[in-house]
Each structure stands twice: as structure tokens, then as C-alpha cells.
Amino acid sequence: MLNPVKVGILGLGTVGGGTVSVLQRNAEEIERRAGRGIVVSHACAKELNRNLPYSTDEIVITTQLDDVVNNPEVEIVVELMGGTTTARDMILKAIANGKHVVTANKALIAHHGNEIFAAARAKGVMVAFEAAVAGGIPIIKAIREGLSANKILWVAGIINGTSNFILTEMREKGRDFADVLAEAQRLGYAEADPTFDIEGNDAAHKLTILSSLAFGIPLQTDKVYIEGITKITREDVEYATSLGYRIKLLGIAKRTATGIEMRVHPTFIPQKRLIANVDGVMNAIVVNGDAVGTTLYYGAGAGAEPTASSVVADIIDVVRALTSDPENRVPHLAFQPDALSDLPILPIEEVETAYYLRMQALDKAGVLAQVAGILGQNGISIEAILQKEPEGSSAAIVILTHKIVEKQLNRAIQSIESLEGIEGKVTRIRLETLDR
User: Are the C-beta atoms of residues 184 and 230 closer than 8 Å to each other?
Assistant: First the structure.
């Protein structure tokens, strides 16, 4: 019988603790799947809580990261401490020491993945990162392996639970953004500084990874267009519902004839789509391939054990591959490293999509006709118009457009905002049907 594989964990916080707990609780099942036992032998933690849901009797606990990374007994290093600077240094050191790596760190992979994967290939070790995107949903494995026969056409995902919770509460309870954000912070769904979630940065890191896996391009997080949900009003949510849509913060990656789109922004989705009905803190990703069509992956995007589920699955994958030829392993980014493409990433001005527009018009004749005229002059056709009863001296006008390149819409909005009959700025939210 082969000796158990020894694992060293960097960080015993929420996910680290969940990982140890799952490995211990399901040890027998995991051994049957992996072909040999897997034990956590070493861990680095700043401090330990007293009431742990797992045993530390057989684990050497240290406060020094190097004690784990440099230990000759440890075959797999699991990085769960977060951040990008120290985490990058420790992972590169582990790789240099010939150790395989498992991480849940999406920011690290998005920013430094190209460097880390090159180092791993040179050393013949694996870097697994399933938990870096959408917590417990095995979306990376699905794209990298399950859909490898397909030319992936587009990916669209709710990949930030905090933003999804806020938008769900705004729709279901008719509440304002600031009010729901405060509740999300009280419930622990949002950080004290929620910027990373509500401004779309977290989703952008995850979309960077999904785009590379889907299209065989290098990781390029600086090319993602990012727009958060802070400007979404209760009125926009209500108009979406009345028009048969839901607003979701989506990460969208598309292959087009002119390049790759990578964008994170609030999006109108028809409410009949399954993904439009993913509520609360849950995540979901839709992937469209030329052979398979549209597939949906749904589940918990965060949490101790859902995320640990993906971390442990990665550890099992590494153990299964310990004796395999490095040249025959599944490539880190789905495509062979020498076959990555340098397809251009499109700026948002070149993206083509439909739009929701909301503006405040003075209550006088001819304003709507002027607006429609400007849209027509810019080649923008209207799908629907909704005009509310005037409140005081002005009334809201809501317009849904057909697909148009964004730079044409930008010109139209500039002209509309200069009209005497329009008050303030035009609100614009992109619209995706996600139907093919």
C-alpha cells in the first residue's frame, strides 16, 4: 500500500479550516477516489480558534510559511491565505522546491498566473485552482475538460455573491442600494470595505481566468472592462421587472469576428432565462459551445465547505497525477502553452449589445420625438418605449434598443443629454438576451 500523500496548508482561516475538515471527514471516500490516502501534515496559521471542527493532533502547526513550503515531507502546498505578494512568493518557492500547488486565490492567478504556470511547467509540477472561480462550482474543470471538444463562443456568469445578494434584495423588497449594502455587511456577505465586490473587481479576476480557459488566450486582467452596481437605482430594478427583465452583475466573455470581449457590468437579462433567477449569494455560469450549445453551472460561490469541496477535488487530481508524465497532464489554461492565441481584446466602445436607457424629460411636446430622432440618426433602432406619468414638471422615459456598437450609442447619448428638454444624465445599462 502506498504511503499517504502529505499536504501542507498555508492559512487555516475559513477555507483552510473547511479543507482540513473535509479531508478528515471524508478520508475513506477520498482514498478510494485518489488511490491512496491524503493527510494534512503541516499547516501555517497566525492563530487557531479553540472550537475547531477538525483535529490538529497529527498536524504540525507553525507560524512560519517557509516551514511548510521548504519541508521535504510535504508534496502538495495548498495556498489559502489570500493576497498576491506573499502568496506569489510562497507559490513560486514551493514550485522551485518541486512541490505541486493548489490555490483558491483568484487575484493571484489573474495577475500572476502566466508567470506561475510557466514556472510550474519548467519544474514539471501542477498548479490547480478550481476554487479560484465560483467557489464550489467545478466550472474550471467543466470548461477545461468536459467541454474540450467545443469551440467556446461565450461565457456569462454571476460570479460575485455579494453583488447578487444586493440586487436580489433590491428587486424582491423594493429597497435602495445603500440600505441593502448595509444589511449585507451586517450579515457578513459584504466586507467592511465592499469596494472590491460592488465595483466589479472580484468578478473581473474570475472572468480573466474563465476567458483564458474558454478562448486559449493569456491571462490579461488589465484588459477587462469593469463597471460596478453602485449606480443601480430602485427605479431601474422596477423598470427591469415591468419590462420582463432582471438586473444582474455579469462577467461576460465573448468570441467575435474582430476579437475577444471581456467585460463586467450590470446587465438586463430576460427573466425567463435560468440565470436570471439565480438569487441571493448564489453563483451561476452559462457557457455556450458550438457543439454542446448552452450549458448552465449553478451552486455556492463561497463559504468554508463549498470552496473546500473544490480545493480537495484539486488535491485529489494532483494525487492521481503524481506518477503521470508531466507532458500528458491537462494544461493549466486548457490549451497547450505554446498554442495560446494573441487575439485582440476589444475596448468597450467596440462591443455590440442592446441597451436600456432611462432619462428624465420635461413635460412638454416634442421631447420624445427629438430623442427618437437622435437615436435614428445614429442607426439605433428602438425595441420598446415606456413613458411614465409626469411627476411635477418632468417624466421618466425608458427605452430598450436593439443591438448597436457602443461608440454609436455614446454619440447618441451625448446629443440627447444636450437637449433642452432632457434633465441630467442618461442612465445606460447593457442588455444581453443570452439566447444563443
Answer: no
Same fold for the pair 5-136+304-335 and 349-431: no
Q: How far apart are CA 171 and CA 257, in angstroms?
A: 36
Q: Which fold has domain 5-136+304-335?
A: Rossmann fold (3.40.50)
At 335-378, the pLDDT tens digits run 878 878 889 999 999 999 999 999 999 988 889 999 999 999 99
pLDDT single digits (tens) 219-276 = 999 999 999 999 999 999 999 999 999 999 999 999 999 999 999 999 999 999 999 9
CATH class of 139-300: alpha beta
**Degrees (nearest 5) of the Cα angle 257, 283, 288?**
25
Which residues are identified as catalytic? 206
Q: Identify whether the C-beta of residue 22 lies closer than 8 Å to the C-beta of residue 309.
A: yes
**CA torsion, points 362, 363, 369, 370, in degrees to nearest 10?**
-20
Match domain 349-431 to its CATH number in 3.40.50.300, 3.30.70.1320, 2.30.38.10, 3.30.70.260: 3.30.70.260
Least confident of 160-169, 203-212, 301-310: 301-310
Would the pLDDT of 308 be above 80? yes
Q: Checking DSSP bridges between strand 260-270 and strand 382-387, what pairing results, if any?
A: unpaired
Q: Which residues pair with 102 in a beta bridge?
A: 78, 128
Q: Taking a C-beta distance cutoff of 8 angstroms, is the pair 91, 103 a contact?
A: yes
So where are the chain's domains? 5-136+304-335, 139-300, 349-431
The cell 454609436 sits on which residue? 408
- Give the Cα separation of 172 and 185 in Å (integer): 18
Q: Which residues contact 183 (CB under 8 A, 6 or more apart)?
A: 169
Q: Strand order of the sheet with strand 60-62?
A: 60-62, 38-44, 5-10, 76-79, 100-103, 127-128
Q: Cβ contacts of residue 200 below 8 Å, gap of 6+?
A: 160, 163, 226, 227, 228, 229, 249, 264, 265
Distance between CA atoms of 124 and 76, rounded to whole angstroms?
13
Q: What pLDDT, on the 0 to 100 scale, is given for residue 79?
A: 97
What is the helix, strand, coil percentage profile of the chain, to 5? 40, 25, 35
DSSP state of 73: T
Mean pLDDT of 295-322: 93
Q: What is the DSSP string of 415-432?
A: HHHTSTTEEEEEEEEEE-
pLDDT in tens, 119-129: 999 999 999 99
